[in-house]
Amino acid sequence: MSGTHAFKFPATDGKKVNEQILPFAYTAIMPYISLNTLAGKVFIQGNDEYVTDIGFSVPCAPEGITPAVEKAAKQLNEYFSGSRKGFDLPLKIEGSELQRAVCDSLMKIPYGETVTYKYIAADIGNPRAIRAVATAIGRNPIAVVIPCHRVIGSDGKMRGFAGGIPFKEYLLKVEGWSPQR
Q1: Does residue 60 carry a catalytic annotation?
Q2: pLDDT per residue as tens digits for the range 87-131
Q3: Does any domain span residue 151?
Q4: Which domain CATH number covers 166?
Q5: Catalytic one among 109, 121, 137, 148?
Q6: Is the overall model pTM greater than 0.70, yes or no?
Q7: What's the domain count of the chain?
Q8: 3-state SS of the chain?
């Protein structure tokens, strides 16, 4: 089940309390599993058909396994061991048009290579939207598989990553990337 629900949320401007109606999206709760890697835990969530989330925070859902999650865990283990360079998973990517465009662009970055936020902005046809692109990358729901870790700053430095910069560096190391390239 998915949809939108409005609820009242008290907001304050420091002096008085107002009530605002905010949209609240909800989806069916899907089970997850955790995968231990050398850099930390990765959590995989999905239903019988699709992987919906790969991230670094424990989902608010019961532990369990579905066919899509099981397939993702197998492929991620192969990736972390160095025997897999790409993924063949059924993904369900939700988000705004910009977020989906950014995810599509991220999927084109070759294994072991990096690009900049500026490059992604140009690739989606909006070269001035670098900050919006960075925000969309930060909201990537399917980390590692949608390789947001392959995006670095124009100065060649590591920038934000939901799993932390050391995890981002670890993923790039798994792929054989080095800053001197």
Answers
A1: no
A2: 999 998 888 999 999 999 999 999 999 999 999 999 999 999 999
A3: yes
A4: 1.10.10.10
A5: 148
A6: yes
A7: 2
A8: CCEEEEEEEEEECCCCEEEEEEEEEECCCCCEEEEEECCEEEEEEECCCCEEEEECCCCCCCECCCHHHHHHHHHHHHHHHCCCCCCCCCECCCCCHHHHHHHHHHCCCCCCCCEEHHHHHHHCCCCCCHHHHHHHHHCCCECCCCCHHHEECCCCCCCCCCCCHHHHHHHHHHCCCCCCC
